[in-house]
Design a protein that fits this description.
Length: 577
C-alpha cells in the first residue's frame, strides 16, 4: 500500500510541475461570468519547472481600430498580438470555459493588466468610459450611415428659389399632395396662385403676403444616396444678414438664375444680389456652386439654347474672378422650378439640346464632404427660442453630440446639458455628428443667456474668445479711402459684431509681400493686414486652425465692404474646463 501511495504522490507531483503555475501571479478576474468563483493559484508541492513559458507583462491582443468614412460601411482592422499568450490549464471547469471565450476574442487572460483594460473596453455598461472612442465611433457610424449635406439656395429676389425648394419637397414626397392642394387653394384665394409651391418653405404670413423670403428657411428631404437640409436664403438686399447666417451653415450652394428676359440682367448688374450672394458664399467657404438657370419654360425663353449660352457666357468670367474654377467648381444646368422639369427627372423632349443630369442627380453625384467626427465640438448657434425649455439650432461644424452630454457655451462659459436632439427631419435623435443641422434642447441655461453667434463646445476643448485680432483684409467696395478708426459690422460664422479697424499694419501686393511701413489708408481692390477690435468678446479661431471660425465679412450701409481671414489672435482668453 505504501508503494502505491508513493507512486500516486509522484504522479500528482509530476502533473503539478507540468502546470508551470506562478505562485506570485495576481488573482484572475473572470470577464464573462462575473458570478464565477475567484481562481487563486496554489504553490506546488515540489519545486516547479522554471517559469520560462510565463507570458510577458503586455501580451494582450491590441484593440481593434475603426476606419471612418461617412457614407460607407465601417471596417475593422485587427492588429496582431506582439507575443503569444501562455496557455495555463485552469483547475475548475468554469475557468476553462471562460478561457476559451476570452481566447476567441483575442484577450490574453494571463496578464492581469491587459485583462482589466480589455474588460472595460468590452463591457461599457458596467464600466462607463467617456474615452471609449472605438465603440462610440461604431455607434455613430451605424446611426448616421447616410451622408448629410446642407444645400443653400441663393440668388436675386424673384429668381424662384422658394418655388424650386417647395417643388423639391413635393417631388421627394416630403410634402404630401393633399397639403400642396391646400396651399394651392389658399394661394388662389389670396390672388397669389403661382406662389403656392413657395408656401411649403415660406411659412409665415408676412412672407406669403409679400411673396419674399425674409428669414433663411429650413426644410429637409432625402434621396436614395443622401439626406439634405435646404437653406432657403432671402434674395432681397435688405435681408442679406439672414442670408449670411444661412451661408455659414452650407456645404453646397445652388445659385438660382432667372432666364426670363430682363430678370437675369437686373440680378447680375450692379446692385443685383447675384453678384453679392456669390461673393458671400465663397467667403463662407462653399467650394461647389450649382448654377440652376430657372424659368426656362417662360414664354420669353421657350427653352432657347441661345439664351442659356448667353447667361453661361456672362457668368463664367465673374465666377473665375471670385476664385471658382469653371471646369470643376461650377456646374450649369437648365430647369423649370415651377413645372419640375430638370429638377428630379431630366428635362427630356422639352429641351432636346441638354442631355445632362437633373438637379437632384447632380447633387447626389457631388463628392462627399470631409467631416471631423472626432474633432473638438463646435456648434455656432444660429437661432434660439423657448419651447418648454431653451432650444438652440445650428450646424455641427466639428465633433459629435449625444443625449445627456455636458457641454459649455462660449464665450459666457456656461455649463449645461443636452436633454433632446432634433435632426433635420424634426425627429428626436440619440446622437448627431459633424455636418448635421440640428436643434438642441438645453438643460441648465435660460433662453436669455444664449445669443446667436455663441458657440457650443465640449468642456475639455474650448474655443478662443477675443476682442482683438490681426486679419488679412481684401477691400471689395468702398466709396472713399479706409483709414484706421473705420467702423463696420463684422459677420463671422453666425455671429454679428460691431468692429473698428484699430491699425493698418501692412499692405500686401500681388506677390503676397508685405510693406515695411504701415499704410496711411487703403482703397477698393487693395489687400492689407489690419488689427481689428470688437465691442464684445467673440468666439473665433485663426483661419489656419479652423477655417469655419476664421473667415468673415465686413458690411456697411447695406453693402459688403471687405472679406477677411483671421491670422493671429492678439487678446485671447483660453478657458480650460
Amino acid at each position: 500500500m505504501s508503494g502505491n501511495q508513493d507512486n500516486s504522490v509522484d504522479k500528482v507531483t509530476q502533473k503539478t510541475a507540468e502546470l508551470s503555475l506562478n505562485a506570485g501571479a495576481k488573482e484572475f478576474v473572470p470577464k464573462f461570468n462575473v458570478k464565477a468563483p475567484v481562481f487563486t493559484p496554489r504553490a506546488a508541492t515540489t519545486p516547479a519547472a522554471a517559469p520560462a513559458a510565463a507570458a510577458p507583462a503586455n501580451t494582450a491582443a491590441a484593440p481593434k481600430t475603426m476606419s471612418i468614412k461617412i457614407g460607407s460601411t465601417p471596417t475593422a482592422k485587427e492588429e496582431p498580438a506582439k507575443a503569444e499568450p501562455a496557455k495555463a490549464e485552469p483547475v475548475k471547469e468554469t475557468a476553462k470555459t471562460e478561457a476559451k471565450e476570452a481566447s476567441s476574442d483575442n484577450i490574453a487572460t494571463t496578464s492581469a493588466t491587459a485583462t482589466s483594460n480589455t474588460a472595460s473596453a468590452a463591457d461599457t455598461s458596467n464600466v462607463p468610459d467617456d474615452n471609449d472612442i472605438t465603440e462610440e465611433e461604431e455607434m455613430l457610424l451605424n446611426e448616421h450611415f447616410k451622408e448629410h449635406m446642407n444645400v443653400i439656395f441663393i440668388g436675386h429676389v424673384d429668381a424662384g428659389k422658394s418655388t424650386l425648394g417647395g417643388n423639391i419637397l413635393f417631388l421627394t414626397e416630403m410634402v404630401d399632395k393633399r397639403t400642396m392642394e391646400k396651399y394651392e387653394r389658399e394661394a388662389k384665394e389670396a390672388g397669389r396662385e403661382s406662389w403656392y409651391l413657395s408656401w411649403a418653405l415660406d411659412t409665415n404670413q408676412e412672407e406669403r403676403n409679400k411673396g419674399k423670403t425674409v428669414e433663411c428657411g429650413r426644410a429637409f428631404f432625402e434621396t436614395a444616396r443622401r439626406r439634405y437640409t435646404i437653406l432657403d436664403a432671402p434674395g432681397h438686399k435688405n435681408y442679406v444678414p439672414s442670408m449670411v447666417t444661412g451661408a455659414a451653415q452650407a456645404d453646397v450652394a445652388v445659385l438660382v438664375i432667372s432666364a426670363r428676359k430682363g430678370e437675369f440682367e437686373t440680378g447680375f448688374e450692379r446692385g443685383g444680389q447675384t453678384r453679392e450672394h456669390t461673393v458671400l458664399i465663397k467667403t463662407a467657404g462653399v467650394r461647389t456652386l450649382v448654377v440652376a438657370i430657372n424659368k426656362m419654360d417662360d414664354p420669353t425663353v421657350g427653352w432657347d439654347k441661345a439664351r442659356y449660352d448667353q447667361i453661361v457666357t456672362k457668368l463664367t468670367p465673374f465666377f473665375k474672378q471670385n476664385g471658382y474654377k469653371a471646369d470643376s467648381d461650377v456646374i450649369f444646368l437648365p430647369i423649370s422650378g415651377y413645372t419640375g422639369a430638370g429638377v428630379k427627372d431630366r428635362v427630356g423632349s422639352a429641351c432636346s439640346w441638354y442631355t445632362g443630369p437633373s438637379l437632384l442627380e447632380t447633387l447626389d453625384g457631388l463628392q462627399a464632404v470631409e467631416r471631423k467626427i472626432n474633432g473638438p465640438l463646435r456648434i455656432p448657434i444660429s437661432e434660439k427660442f423657448r419651447d418648454m425649455g431653451t432650444i438652440v439650432s445650428g450646424k455641427i461644424e466639428s465633433g459629435n453630440i449625444r443625449l445627456n452630454q455636458k457641454v459649455m457655451i462660449m464665450p459666457e462659459k456656461r455649463i449645461c446639458e443636452i436633454s433632446n436632439i432634433y435632426g433635420a427631419s424634426e425627429n428626436e435623435e440619440q446622437s448627431a455628428i459633424s455636418g448635421d443641422n440640428v436643434r438642441i434642447k438645453l438643460r441648465g441655461v435660460e433662453e436669455d443667456m444664449v445669443q446667436n453667434g455663441h458657440v457650443i463646445v465640449d468642456r475639455k476643448h474650448p474655443c478662443h474668445n477675443t476682442r482683438e485680432f490681426d486679419a488679412l483684409l481684401v477691400i471689395r467696395e468702398a466709396k472713399n479711402i479706409i483709414t484706421a478708426g473705420y467702423k463696420s459690422v463684422m459677420h463671422v460664422h453666425t455671429a454679428t459684431e460691431e468692429i473698428i479697424l484699430a491699425k493698418l499694419l501692412h499692405k500686401v501686393n500681388k506677390q503676397n509681400k508685405r510693406s515695411r511701413m504701415p499704410p496711411p489708408f487703403v482703397k477698393k481692390g487693395e489687400r492689407c493686414i489690419v488689427r481689428i477690435q470688437t465691442t464684445k468678446p467673440v468666439c473665433v479661431e485663426t483661419y489656419s486652425d479652423f477655417p469655419q471660425l476664421g473667415r468673415f465679412t465686413l458690411r456697411d450701409e447695406g453693402k459688403t465692404i471687405a472679406i477677411g481671414q483671421i491670422l493671429k489672435l492678439v487678446d485671447t482668453n483660453i478657458i480650460n474646463a
